[in-house]
Design a protein that fits this description.
- This protein is an alpha+beta fold and 349 residues long.
- Helices cover 37% and strands 10% of the residues.
- The protein has helices at 5-14, 31-40, 48-52, 54-57, 60-63, 104-123, 138-145, 191-195, 213-218, 226-231, 241-244, 271-275, 279-285, 296-309, 316-319, 328-343; strands spanning 19-24, 69-76, 94-95, 127-130, 149-150, 156-157, 165-172, 235-237.
- The strands form three sheets. It has a four-stranded antiparallel β-sheet, with helices on both faces.
- Helix 1 (5-14) packs antiparallel against helix 6 (104-123) and helix 14 (296-309) runs parallel beside helix 16 (328-343).
- The protein is elongated.
C-alpha cells in the first residue's frame, strides 16, 4: 500500500505549516483520565463547556467514530522579542504573544481545508478539520503524533520550535502510521512552574485554571480575588510566562507567517489609551486579534487592574471616570485600582 505521508507533509509545508505528523487514533487515550480528574477537581473554573463536552473529548473517535488516523499540523508563532521584557513597562499593556498578530483560527483553518482536500484527491478517504473549534484534545494528539510533548506546564513543547506552535488537526478515515520520533523530556527543569505569578500549577503536569492569568483575563467574567489582581502586573490579555522561560525556546525561530507576527499597535499599547476605548473603538483596535472575543467591559476590567499595579499616581485621573461605571465589575476594578495607587506601594511584578 502506498505511503501518502511524504506527499501530504510536502503539501502542508507548501501551505505554510511548519510541522506535520501523523498518528492512528484507535488506541488507548490516557489524556481522558487526566481530563476527568481536572474537571472533577473543579479546576476548569467557569469553563462549563469543558465539562459539558467531556464525553466527546474523551477520545478522538468520540468526535467522529469513522476516524482512523490524524494529520496533526503545527504553525510556528515565535516572537521576535522576549515576552517577559514587556512586564517591566508598568504603564503599558502586556498582551500575550498569540494575540498580537492575526487570529490564528482565521490563518490556519482555510489551509487545513485545502490540505484535507489535497489528501482526499491523492489518497481518497474522508476528512474533518479542527483548529481549537471543537472538543478535540489537540495537545495530546500532537504528542501522540510526535510533534512534541506536553511539558510540566501542560502546554506542548517542541524540540524545534520550543513553546510557540499553533495546532490544527485533520481526522481522516485513512490509515496513517506514526513515524519514529525521539521522545522529549523536561528532565528536572521546572522553570515554568517556578515563574508562574499565581502558583497555578499544583504539581508538575497539572494546571488549576482558576489561578491562571490566561484563564482569568480571558475566560473569567467576574471580579477577581484580590491576590490575583496584584499578581497580574500589566498582563491584560493572557500570560506567556510559563511558555517564555522554557529552555527549549533556544531553538525557536521567529514566525515565518507574517500574519502571526506582532502588529506594531499591539506590542505594548499604553494602558491609559486602552481603558478609554469604547465598544466600537475596541472592536476596531482589535479587529484582527482574538482579544476582541472577550468584549470591552471585561477587557476594561483587566486594564483597570493593570493601572492599579502601575505605581504611577498620575494615572489616577484615567481611572477615576470608571468609578461610577454602570457595570459593577468595572466599577469595582476602578475602586481597587484607585486604592492600590493611593497606597503607593511597589507594584507587583
Amino acid at each position: 500500500m502506498k505511503d501518502y505521508r511524504p506527499l501530504i507533509r510536502a503539501r502542508a509545508l507548501e501551505l505554510g505549516f511548519d510541522a506535520c505528523a501523523f498518528t492512528p487514533v484507535g488506541e488507548a487515550w490516557p489524556a481522558s483520565a487526566r481530563l476527568y480528574e481536572f474537571v472533577e477537581a473543579g479546576r476548569h473554573g467557569e469553563m462549563d463547556w469543558i465539562e459539558t463536552t467531556r464525553e466527546r473529548r474523551a477520545h478522538p473517535t468520540a468526535m467522529w467514530g469513522e476516524a482512523r488516523s490524524a494529520i496533526v499540523l503545527g504553525m510556528n508563532y515565535g516572537p521576535d522579542t522576549d515576552p517577559l521584557a514587556a512586564l517591566a513597562n508598568k504603564d503599558r499593556a502586556a498582551i500575550s504573544v498569540y494575540a498580537q498578530g492575526d487570529d490564528y483560527h482565521a490563518v490556519i483553518k482555510g489551509r487545513l481545508k485545502t490540505l484535507a482536500d489535497f489528501a482526499k484527491s491523492r489518497a481518497g478517504g474522508r476528512n474533518k478539520v479542527f483548529v481549537d473549534t471543537a472538543p478535540l484534545m489537540e495537545k495530546p494528539l500532537a504528542e501522540a503524533a510526535g510533534l512534541g510533548w506536553q511539558g510540566k506546564h501542560t502546554n506542548l513543547v517542541s524540540r524545534e520550535f520550543g513553546s510557540w506552535l499553533f495546532l490544527g488537526s485533520i481526522l481522516t478515515t485513512l490509515d496513517l502510521a506514526t513515524e519514529p520520533v525521539e521522545p522529549g523530556s523536561c528532565g528536572s527543569c521546572q522553570a515554568c512552574l517556578d515563574v508562574c505569578p499565581t502558583d497555578a500549577f499544583p504539581a508538575p503536569y497539572q494546571l488549576d485554571a482558576r489561578k491562571c492569568l490566561s484563564y482569568l483575563t480571558i475566560e473569567f467574567t467576574g471580579p477577581w480575588p484580590e491576590a490575583y489582581r496584584a499578581a497580574m502586573g500589566n498582563r491584560v490579555y493572557g500570560c506567556d510566562d510559563c511558555l517564555a522561560v522554557c529552555p527549549w525556546n533556544k531553538f525557536a525561530a521567529v514566525a515565518r507567517e507574517s500574519r502571526l507576527r506582532a502588529h506594531a499597535a499591539l506590542r505594548q499599547p499604553a494602558l491609559a489609551d486602552l481603558v478609554a476605548l469604547d465598544d466600537a473603538a475596541f472592536r476596531k483596535f482589535f479587529a484582527r486579534s482574538p482579544v476582541k472575543r472577550i468584549g470591552v467591559n471585561q477587557f476594561r476590567r483587566n486594564v483597570l487592574y493593570a493601572l492599579g499595579n502601575s505605581g504611577d499616581l498620575a494615572l489616577q485621573e484615567v481611572v477615576q471616570p470608571w468609578l461610577s461605571d454602570p457595570d459593577p465589575v468595572v466599577a469595582d476594578a476602578a475602586a481597587w485600582a484607585t486604592a492600590r495607587l493611593n497606597r503607593g506601594g511597589p507594584p507587583s511584578s
